[in-house]
């Protein structure tokens, strides 16, 4: 039994490593699950026992880099403003994904697109839920009463995906254009959160 | 500074004509109303939007005024075209307003161009661009990492998270090097430098209707000069070179201090220099300094300006934020982003103009020919000669009587402004591009000495500094 678990873990790891290699060399569209299975030395059917789809594979790769499900505790506020802490959180994520950038943009399109979501659980859900929880924790640390209404969360996620897509294709030196875009997007977002408060006080 | 205050600083003249002026005013009102409906309560963002929208409004109001002056005799169809252009301008400016830096640069651009902006508004713009919202620490750290491949923690022995000053398009932090020196680290907001060309393409589109005018070539060249200088200004490696050059020009007995550049801690977007502990102009004035102290600082400011000019590297942006008043009485010069580097042609023109000013007024016609590109048979020659004579008169006024000249004399300052606005009204705007920044420099230095109410022995300074000018290359 223990051996089986070990083998399973190893096979899963091998499939993931192989997939990453394939995605990097052949790109998102140029890679098939069959090619991954062959390269990893498993039957295609076996691969599907581990990952339901190519999207699920990529989502796992991304999720691993982002530490999804591995954070024991939420960090309290470090910087003075929520913008700064959100910036730090998002940029750290981008930095951890940097070597995946080449295939991230097309992959993210199907993994995260709201249009791609079916009745079954979407492969990007775990990442989205984890990310939004983290954002809630950061905002709570700065005194914002949560959780955000669904619309506000969706607004945030849309903004985030926009920046994400921009970053994935950003050719400026050091992705400095993304730095500026992220900075300004977060200012916009936090400003929109402040709005109801302002109405109350005025 | 709020919107109301700024709008009242706009000269009435630019609004007081029928037609486009009213329209600009109404549209500016619309933009403001539109903005006030938006959710922009966050401190820094509000400042960002306010600043950028304001620069846009000022630039636009002046743009409107400029177009009006240019086309004062235009027929109806031209007027309609003008209005279309204004509309387009407003739309573009409004959209650009979301980008930090872009508008600030446009505002600066407007303030450089003779004819676009009255001096007091240019001065206001200077203050505005000193007021850009800050980068928070995580963002700034990434900019540092981009430049050095290391974060602030690894690169520096100590680094203050809070900026102690704003710079154009960036901010300045105090830090300590691993070797122990206290330094000032200037950091540029990401992505700004690369937007300049796009901004200028937009401006060129807006200026399309001017293309038929006889002054177009000159206007175009002047725009090109501004674009070139802005590129230079955002390139901190270039600023490091200019700073080193300036540092070599001054000795300790001058009482003028230029900070040392730390090359290992500097790059294209980050500039690290010695930290100089001193007061800015307004803080200095708050200490209620004696007349002697004002005079001493004024003399140093004027000396520094003249010396750089005669070394063919004029200090083109003498705005108050670039000067530090030190406790021991010496003057700190701290920002060399906007320094011109005269080449052979410009040196030649400068020598000629200098001789005309101080030695031989009969050279005036030749100066007009060389500097303004106006030929003897051009009907505009008479106007240009008159303009040049007045300009010379104003330049040498401080030397008319022996002894110190009181730059606090408002009449003198006004005379320059009047001259400037009259030349614009008469559309005497053809000039070698080097004069875009020279004009700004002259008005900047006189405005600074005016605020300082300094008395400076101009005779003496020029007698001392003028021989530094190399008569041949």
Spatial gap, N to C terminus of chain B: 47 Å
Radius of gyration of chain B: 23 Å
Poorly predicted parts of chain B? 1-21, 31-74, 88-132
Oligomer: heterodimer
Q: How would you sum up the major sheet of chain B?
A: 5 strands, antiparallel
Number of domains of chain A: 2
- Given as residue ranges, the uncertain stretches of chain A (5+ residues, pLDDT < 50) are 197-202
SSE order of chain B: HHHHHHHHEEEEHHHEEHHEEHHHEHHEH
Global shape of chain B: globular
User: What's the tally of helices of chain B?
Assistant: 19
Structural class of chain A: mainly alpha
* Largest sheet entry of chain A: none
Portion of residues within helices of chain B = 55-70%
Q: Can you count the beta strands of chain A?
A: 0
Please, could you describe this protein's structure?
The complex is a heterodimer of chains A (202) and B (473). With 202 residues, chain A is an all-alpha fold. Chain A is 70% helix and 0% strand. Chain A has helices at residues 2-26, 33-40, 44-50, 54-66, 82-96, 101-112, 125-141, 150-168, 176-201. Chain A is globular, with a radius of gyration of 19 Å. Chain B is α+β, with helices and mostly antiparallel strands and 473 residues long. Chain B has 19 helices and 10 strands. In chain B, the strands form 3 sheets. In chain B, strands 1, 2, 3, 4 and 6 form a 5-stranded antiparallel beta sheet that branches. Classes of the chains: A mainly alpha (202), B alpha+beta (473). At the A-B interface, α5 and α9 of A face α3 and α7 of B.
